Input
Amino acid sequence: MFNKSFYHKTIKRYVIHIGNLFNDIYVNRNESGTQFQTLKVPLIYGPKEKYLARADGDPNLNRPLAFVVPAMSFEIFDMSYDPQRKLSRTQKICNPDGSSSQYSPVPYNFMFRLSIMSKNAEDATQIVEQILPYFAPDWTSTLNLVSDPPISLDVPVSLSSVAIDNNYEGPFEQRGMIIWEMFFELKGWLFGPTNTSSLIKNINLNLFTDTTSANTSESIINIKPGLTANGTATSNASLSIDYTDINPDDDYGFIVTFSQG
Output
């Protein structure tokens, strides 16, 4: 059953897609109604705990936390099979040239967590308000999921819930941290191995008549595609190019010849 190695990098594509959704967010800071600073919010992959530990891990213990926030982190933390989107397993997706095919993909839901970390409420709410309006209730993008055969599908990402955590633990002189967490569900697909196939362009059909002594060949039927040099379908063998040069997506005719065995 598992004797064929394959890897379409589908899950990796989903992780990159989530990162691209939130990779271009900025925070504008104002003073007396005048904007004096614009910061691009950094985005990293991994749990927020690692980023917080890195922010607090200055060897001299004197680096202000304000220099490393606001920031965001995201990670995939769960996935589950989705029976409501199940497709027929006998259905195939074929390459236009007929050289490869895929059976119907398997539906899976992927859960992602986006953490927004800030030292003040103004920066945090700016980031949140740049995200929430786009998910009503989901954001759908078309992703190229498999290269052979080329398969592109619409992949919706929906916002499941939002949580807020004001972290004021620690000594009084330590800065507090405001953390927003958003949970997203990506309705994706996983694909099996690609099946390759060889195309049949030349058929010889032998017709036999049973006798009491042996099988005797009566006639032979040969079938080939026919296509002229200017791309016109033909059934005349003398006008056709060689059948090996005809592609499956050409508008060809059929050349049928009969001969006695």
